[in-house]
TetR/AcrR family transcriptional regulator
Amino acid sequence: MSRPEPSRGRTGRPPLTSRPQILAAARRIIDRDGWEKLTVRRLAAELGIGTTTLYHHVRDREDLLIQLLNEHADRTLALDLPREPRERIVAAATAIHDSLAAWPWAAEVLTTDGFLGRLGKSSLRMVEAVLAGAVDHGCTPEQAVHVFRSIWYFTVGEILVRARSTGTDGERPAFFAGVDMSGLPRLAALGERWPELAARDTYPRALRSFVDGLLAGTAPRPSNS
Amino acid sequence: MSRPEPSRGRTGRPPLTSRPQILAAARRIIDRDGWEKLTVRRLAAELGIGTTTLYHHVRDREDLLIQLLNEHADRTLALDLPREPRERIVAAATAIHDSLAAWPWAAEVLTTDGFLGRLGKSSLRMVEAVLAGAVDHGCTPEQAVHVFRSIWYFTVGEILVRARSTGTDGERPAFFAGVDMSGLPRLAALGERWPELAARDTYPRALRSFVDGLLAGTAPRPSNS
DNA sequence: ACCTGAACACCGTTCAAGT
DNA sequence: ACCTGAACACCGTTCAAGT
């Protein structure tokens, strides 16, 4: 896993490609060409190495993406969190959300199996904060996991849906064109205002409602003594 | 869009491939080989036609998937909903959830831009039900859209994350293996119980909490007169 | 009007071999 | 120990042509 010092006497050819180099090249591609263009083949080309060489440094494409995400998390999740339980939960969830919203390509990796077990320390700190906030509020560990998972699903859903929504609203033709609106009065009344309303950033407000709803079931801890 | 009667005199060769045939073949592939195998090329092969012929009947792969989803919705969302606003919202969201949970491949299409505008009547009925429930509870149209979107994000997130989670728990090695747990006491205390807790189906409970939280902000309508 | 093969421009990953 | 080209087994989509 860790690379040896170049000065230490060792057998074999010294590596020409390092993990930080690979991640830097990947970021370069994303910034320059868009994250859709980050493929194993292009990344190798960017590094000036053979495609297959990359497979000595990353297990597969998914592994590359998770390493990239963890590095991103290290840079964006190093913040202090409030002490009060509810505010702690809200702040941690918001940090996760904002971090992911800035990297919509993260969507590809968010839903992989066993994702949590492959997360780095920075991300796990945020998971811990939500769990601790819930427990401090009076939740059992089981309830705390439920609180975390609920918030996680909502956050992932928000990111994934909005990541694919074009910001190019304005010149788009009738959103509900060709849809038969009979029997759908509320939807019909909204009509073409829908795209505008759907584009609003309502994550913070919805998050607070959700946290309130989740914590309402469990009695808050009695103040000490 | 609609196909002509074969008996009516018309110019040109009669079509050998119809929309229902295509959708039936697609379902056959999904049931037999798994939804990952549903590709344009395989579908054409299943139908016994050239790959390019398919492009006369569907605009592209995404269009095929949305047609398939709408057909699925027609078969699964034809249910009655309770009249009481809160129960109406919960029932509609649960119907959407259960319908999607049964077809995890729907994940591929859920997040496409302008998705709502391409939905069929059965799905829009559920959207309408959530909006109507919120308005009947006392929400403004703007708030009702907020309620729908919040529930939608949560539902999509739950489906997408759980769709990729293997049900093959039991023989999997240590979930948090190799993770440094120092400074993460709540997570450490949970330890290897995490996969078991994360596998629980908590959607209904979390949904109720969310709906409660979302409706709490808006005063319930005064009973009539 | 409907259908087609060939081609374009790609993918991720593995193998056996080279230095 | 590290790197490699070639190959495998695919993708979605477009074009110009055939019946």
Notes: Residues 10-17, 49-53, 56 of chain A lie near DNA strand D (CB under 10 Å from a C1'). DSSP finds ten helices and no strands in chain A. The mean pLDDT of chain A is 87. Residues 80-218 of chain A form a domain with the Tetracycline Repressor; domain 2 fold (CATH 1.10.357.10).
